[in-house]
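Narrative of accomplishments. A recurring question from our advisory board has been how the design workflow behaves on a single, concrete structure rather than in aggregate. To address it, we present the structure tokens for one chain from the evaluation set, followed by the sequence designed for it. No filtering or post-editing was applied between the two.
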């Protein structure tokens, strides 16, 4: 018996990184997974690899029409939606005073508006199915600050707020809403070398570990599989009395400064 047997869960940004690992783990746990992304080739390949319980849907989370189409595809294939993982997001590095308005708005449109549109589009379907879960991907920076990622940090704080409001408004419909707040995780977002076909992934991961060894009490960068396990916990019945909460998964980074 899997922890998600019989459930249909839509995961955004599922073609790679944390979303990919969430899709893989959810499928192992018995869910029918809607792999949603703008990376069509990778998304389609992943859905095919996961087998008959998976479906690929093209989804630009910043576009309301794309959400309508993805929901229609999921309902057409499975007749229902029981869960949503709002994972898709982008990161841009810049000083606030040097950030072009267009760049700030792009980050807001994908990260913040994307989560809002996901809740708006999918929550009614989850309610119709009898209840379920929404997991929003915020960030370590959603509960603190970080220089040079002002637009990103602003959106992640907003996601934590949206999570709390949605939890309050949707509890009566049997929908639990929580947020995962990852710190440094070894994905293409924090480790662009993953996108370079000529790069050595092990060497790149070791370089990240070296960088974060002094910052993170556990002495290493996190793995997307670890975030996926937290998302699974918040999606399955193990977390049945939890809603409206941000869950930091950062190797202890937020705990403070160590002098050791």
């Amino acid at each position: 018996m899997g922890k998600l047997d019989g459930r249909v869960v839509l995961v955004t940004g599922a073609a790679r990184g944390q979303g990919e690992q969430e899709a893989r783990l959810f499928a192992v746990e018995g869910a029918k997974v809607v792999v949603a992304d703008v990376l069509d080739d990778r998304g389609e390949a992943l859905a095919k690899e996961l087998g008959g319980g998976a479906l690929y849907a093209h989804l630009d989370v910043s576009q309301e029409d794309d959400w309508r189409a993805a929901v229609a595809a999921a309902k057409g294939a499975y007749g229902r939606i029981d869960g949503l993982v709002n994972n898709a997001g982008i990161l841009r590095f810049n000083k606030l005073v040097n950030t072009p308005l267009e760049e700030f708005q792009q980050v807001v449109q994908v990260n913040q508006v994307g989560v809002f549109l996901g809740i708006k589009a999918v929550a009614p379907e989850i309610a119709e199915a009898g209840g379920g879960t929404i997991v929003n991907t915020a960030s370590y920076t959603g509960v603190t600050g970080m220089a040079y990622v002002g637009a990103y940090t602003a959106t992640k704080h907003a996601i934590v707020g949206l999570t709390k409001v949605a939890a309050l408004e949707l509890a009566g419909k049997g929908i639990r809403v929580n947020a995962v707040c990852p710190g440094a995780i070894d994905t293409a977002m924090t480790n662009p070398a993953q996108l370079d076909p000529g790069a050595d992934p092990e060497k790149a991961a070791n370089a990240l570990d070296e960088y974060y060894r002094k910052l993170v009490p556990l002495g290493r960068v996190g793995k997307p599989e670890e975030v996926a396990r937290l998302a699974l916990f918040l999606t399955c019945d193990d977390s049945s009395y939890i809603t409206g909460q941000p869950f930091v998964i950062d190797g202890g980074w937020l705990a403070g400064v160590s002098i050791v």
